[in-house]
Amino acid sequence: MRLPGILHSKSSPDEKGVFHFDEGLPYKELHRNIEAVEEIFKDDSILIKRSFANQSRPEIKCCAFFFDGMVDNKIIDEYVIKPVMTSDFLRADEDIADEIYSKVIVTNDLKKSDDFKEITQSLIYGDTVLFMDGSDNALIISTKGWQTRAIMEPDAEKVLRGPREGFTESMLVNLSMIRRRLCTPDLKFKSRTFGTRSNTKACVCYLDSLVDRKVLDEFNRRLDQIEIDGVIDINYINEQIKDSPFSLFKTTGITERPDVLAAKLLEGKVALILDGTPVALTVPYLFVENFQSGDDYYLNFYFASLGRFLRITGFLISITVPALYVAFTTYHREMIPTNLALSIMEARQGIPFPTVLECAIMLVIFEIIREAGLRMPSNIGQALSIVGALVIGQAAVEARFISAPMVIIVAVTAITGLMNVKLKGATVILRFLFLFAAAFLGIFGLSFALVGLLEHIFSLSSFGVVYASQVSSFKFSEFKDNIFRAPWQHMKTRPVYEQRDTVRKN
């Protein structure tokens, strides 16, 4: 039977999983509050209820609720239950909630609340809720104590030099790592909640005096429009707020390193940290950031600039070399030096496939091997890559299925493609698009594809900022941290972003 007053017209959540509470909650009667909580969390076996009374005045009755495994039991025992039970100055005729709040419980994070929605959400998030007989307020005590992964270097963003800390799945730990790097009251954290059922906590981070207000307002506007049952990872939000969702290029940035995030906040960007995921989202995100690395700013500017130039060159090689090989060997053989052309023709003797099909097969096989290496356990993934690269490639050449020059072309393409992890997906797709364009029209097809790629990049924007900003201009203020990194004495001013007049409307 439904308890009266717990929910509006029904004892279960609505179709969106949202509970609606009457304004009369919580009650002054302790047993009614206990029944209300038990009704909401019925069939939940890890909800712990601890009823107790004051030893000196048994008429002062209390009940604490918390979830097993999400709290620190020592805090509850030593700083909540024991002080309330042993206190000898409590009076039943006074406001018992105020008395316990101000004189008994000694934890540093304590709040009094008469909002039953806030009470249940705090309980779910690992706090302890204390109800008292005769009071229509509850005390919310911070007793969070769940286990979290230790802080370690992120696998996806290897560190050559610099801090080796990475984000964890705990939002509070992540926020503390950012606060430790930006010790200023100008750093703002704005809490949010996503998911009508998951109620996942998140935090918008920015430096108040540096942030672009247009970007911040647009970011908040898009976040306000998100409607989803549950949010488990940052990509649930990313795909719903980014510009040009069908583009191959990312218009929002992600990072697992707190030092990188702190640096982006110092550039005036906005970040979103989600509880339960070790990845933070940053906006706006520019095309040139695909080739930048956090290590660039910890190394000498000569070596940093060289590494960045190699990454850009590697991206161009990875998407164009297979197409160039097919174009030259199929349509423009007169452009190949004679000795090289004879060598290629000799190597292709007996190969049953046309060049474009041969190249496509090899690229697909490489992607299969790469994906298998990622999914396999780490102790055998490396062995799989070696077997795939050496044994299969050598056997294919000896069996005359694949020519030796094609193995070299695909190997160079694969290695250079691994230099830019941020563009991994775009590189694979562009490689095939350019390959088929060259197969149809040779160099002319490849040229048309390159022009289309440039036009697409320059047409993109990220939260009102031109995606190709800092690439299309040769002003030193924008070019100093572009293809090359200038010395630190010339990087005292922040980057200037070119604004676009229109932004995406959801």
Task: Based on the model shown, name its key terms.
16 helices; elongated; five-stranded antiparallel sheet; disordered N terminus; 506 residues; alpha+beta
In summary, what is this structure?
With 506 residues, the chain is an alpha+beta fold. Helix content is 43%, strand content 12%. The strands form three sheets. The chain has a five-stranded antiparallel sheet with strand order 1-2-4-5-3, with helices on both faces.
Description of the molecule:
The strands form 3 sheets. A 5-stranded antiparallel β-sheet has the order 1-2-4-5-3, with helices on both faces. A 5-stranded antiparallel β-sheet has the order 6-7-9-10-8, with helices on both faces. A two-stranded antiparallel ribbon has the order 11-12. Helix content is 43%, strand content 12%. The protein has helices at residues 30-40, 73-86, 96-103, 116-124, 171-181, 213-224, 234-241, 258-266, 301-330, 338-347, 355-375, 378-398, 404-417, 424-441, 443-459, 476-479, and strands at residues 47-53, 61-67, 110-113, 128-132, 138-141, 187-194, 200-207, 253-255, 270-274, 280-283, 461-462, 465-466. The chain folds into 3 domains: 30-141, no CATH class; 171-285, no CATH class; 298-459, no CATH class. It has 506 residues and is of the alpha+beta class. Strand 6 and strand 7 (200-207) form a beta hairpin. The chain contains 16 helices and 12 strands.
Shape: elongated
Compute the number of helices.
16
Low-confidence stretches: 1-11
- Summarize the main sheet: 5 strands, antiparallel
Radius of gyration: 30 Å
Helix/strand-derived category reads alpha+beta
Structural domain tally: 3
The share of residues in extended strands comes to: 5-15%
Helix content: 40-55%
In what order do the strands lie side by side in the largest sheet? 1-2-4-5-3
Mean pLDDT value: 83
* Distance, first to last CA: 44 Å
| Strands, count | 12
Topology pattern, helix = H, strand = E: HEEHHEHEEHEEHHEHEEHHHHHHHEEH
